[in-house]
Amino acid sequence: MTNPSLDAYQQVFGMAGLANRAGGYNGFGIQLQQQLQYDLSYYFNNVPPVKIMDQKIPSIANPSAVAELGNWDLVWGPALIEEKNEKGVPTGVADNALYVVKSNAVAFPGGPTLPTYVVAIAATNPSSLYDWETEDFSVAEVVNWTTYNPSNFAPSAYNGTDPYISKGTATGISILLGLVSPPSAASPNTTLQQFLAGLNPDPSTAIIFCGHSLAGALSPTLALYLKENKDLDAFGVTLVYPTAGPTPGEAAFANLFNSKFPPLPPGWQQQTGTYQSWNTMHWNDLDVVPHAWPVSELGKIATIYGQAPTYMTAALLNALQKMAIADSSNSGASYTRIQNQSLPGQLQHSSASSVSIKTPPESLQDYMLQLSVQHVGMYNGIPAEGPNPQVEGLILSQPLPKPDLKLVPGVTAVTELEMILKIIDQIIGWISSRYVLVEKENAKQNVEADK
């Protein structure tokens, strides 16, 4: 068999992107889970059949997917959760998702060829207000990592000594560890920890945790938790490949992660590609998301795509930046990135759906369309469309091949523009609900400063 066209870093990044597929649909939880499982059957072997889609036997991966990703078997999940809002109404979207695959032989650049498991975690679902409010933006309070119990935790005052993570990150890890593989999925009726405990891997086996966006914060945090909990002792190599992630914790937490997860295992050779390092958060320098939550980085987001020429757009972006800085600063903990590598972004003038993007942004839609392209397209590559030339991605040259879209009954697909408009509505609502509070706090601080 020929080697896959993608190296191990790119394969893992691609699998993180596949976990995000559930975010492109609306439906009830069980329907969304079936849809994700059906989608994964194009890329992986041994995905249990989704009977409602007329699948009769476990999957055999499509040759075009194997040519890029290599041969991987689904071994756990996929599992996802559809949360309920404050009124107890289901969200109608996948708020978090997770799956695990295995390959018998992965050739690591600069390292050996090893049997490997990959734990792929889904990113923020743009349609999930729960993700935005409860996991992404919940950084004003922090949780002490030294006493963190995913099943029972509460924020505490920052003591300036112990490692701390944001309340949002703590919530996300709790949700992931509580996910149960459904009866019709791989390794049914087990949690991730139960699945790992049941393995008896060869001592040389590697396990890799990966995720983009929200999962760029959750994947290193989950890996560290499981490592400290001794759930990963059976594996010879534990790696993380997070991308585009917001910062999960403050300086002591970053130092702890960096000490437990060096960029390369002993004896492995560093590669030349900027995306080619393990245990390192890779981020596009024009992507807003990984600018959260260090205050110095947040101060760049209002004008990251140039100074908005219209008063309303500039005011909204400044309000968003001001609130983000206020939330980041609230606990007294100084959010600090884990070891990381920036990648050079390039401003785009049209979206994946060929909608024109004005730069600098004349409207919030321009800003969000640019953000979307920088947060997704620039990592994956953008195919040529009409007069727009192909854009090489920062990690993948071009997106992974896709199967023809077939929907599980009850599931509807969400377009890119629909996602952008929903994000805009959510952000404007967030600004409107909190802007007065921010201004009051600023006035209070100004009075205290005058005194």
UniProtKB/TrEMBL annotation:
Cited Pfam families: Lipase_3
Gene3D superfamilies membership: alpha/beta hydrolase
Domain Fungal lipase-type: 192-293
Parts of the chain that traverse the membrane: none
InterPro entries per record: AB_hydrolase_fold, Fungal_lipase-type
Highest taxon of the lineage: Bacteria
Official protein name in the record: Fungal lipase-type domain-containing protein
